[in-house]
């Protein structure tokens, strides 16, 4: 999709310039219980979000990306408090809102709004546009100056619709127009934070840019703060100030937009970025530089040990299998959780033996990409090394890092960066394949089971799936 690049600092309001924190999330977890049997005993849990920390600054846009199933939507529903967290803390404007009840949440519902992915199922087909966009006023018992009708008509024109559409029904609108209606509803109470869950992915490509631009314009006019969730880096690229990359319930990289695009540090980020088509004819070899990740995201019921990405990473060594890398600010404005980051000095240089999985993963990475990876890593590491003379990366000294568990070498010892220069020889598929497949199947069935198990207790309020006649009016209508 093509959207005009956002001008530098275009979204920064006065508050954002001051870097004031609007939302702070610490150690956030959401585990959906898996229940079985007559007694509905808990036999496991889907670890959809498994300990994430981040901040959203007033006036900025934080993009959140990752493959399907990595926990982005669950994170969005946690921070809007449509879901109850299993653990962790959510602070909004310095106030702990982690476990606020319905009454406590009522004032917050005005400040935090959500835009849902599917504009077809998130609008009640039996209500007029006027009723839908005016619903938040009714729910909050607020009467805007000049009356609800006048305010709704104003909101309709703000999002580029005619005020005369007031009495029309959702089916009379196109997908893009419906999403504008959803945006008007979200803006009704002048929220401080808007969480948009895949706001354009259900729309035709030609319409996507219009909606993204509308969000961008509204942010500048109204000083909004956004968390925009997308699986597609091309959507968040143009609207985000910072981007968080999620993988299997964790944030693996969180960086300023330009840093992330210029020199991604997590191999997963690099792989995601290589999947975005680059409309630049001068990059003739762009096609061969693609990194094709092997297999699907593993099961969030039993995520891989250590670094969760190690089963698909072409750089994984023993330490990646045994030790979870913490999210550290290796460069100002760029946090990453990786033992062997791209474009930066190796964090575990002592660990040199590639895992079997890494060798298999390397087969799916083109030689060009591997060579480029090695070359940029070496060059940028040297550059960063010079620049960082005066900087102290926030990493633990090597001596403090846990020693990798000694393991029988699976392949001849290779240095990570050097190893990717020469892709490892082919190896027959190991038994891990079967394990991964089993996990995936278990995840699928358990996901359904867990959803059932949760339905009664959790009341996954206000999702776009609540397409029933009365459930569609957004998060406001469904009590927790
Ligand atoms: N209510 C639920 N009960 C059980 N498991 C759930 C529930 N909601 C989500 N999950 C599981 O949590 C994991 C993360 O789901 P989530 O929808 O947050 O991912 P996502 O990154 O947003 O993916 P997508 O882009 O496909 O929506 C998935 O494995 C999903 O099956």
TrEMBL record:
Q: Which UniProt keywords apply?
A: ATP-binding, Nucleotide-binding, Transport
UniProt-listed InterPro entries: AAA+_ATPase, ABC_transp_ATP-bind, ABC_transporter-like_ATP-bd, ABC_transporter-like_CS, Oligopep_ABC_C, P-loop_NTPase
Tree of life domain: Bacteria
Pfam families in the record? ABC_tran, oligo_HPY
Q: Which residues form the ABC transporter domain?
A: 23-273
Record SUPFAM superfamilies: P-loop containing nucleoside triphosphate hydrolases (SSF52540)
For the keyword Iron, the answer is: no
Q: Enumerate the residue ranges of region (Disordered).
A: 394-480
Which is an annotated GO molecular function term of this record? Answer: ATP binding
For bias kind Low complexity, which ranges apply?
A: 404-413, 432-454, 464-474
Which family does the UniProt entry place this protein in? Belongs to the ABC transporter superfamily.
Query: What's the protein here called?
Result: Dipeptide ABC transporter ATP-binding protein
- Taxonomic source organism: Streptomyces griseoaurantiacus
Q: Which lineage?
A: Bacteria, Bacillati, Actinomycetota, Actinomycetes, Kitasatosporales
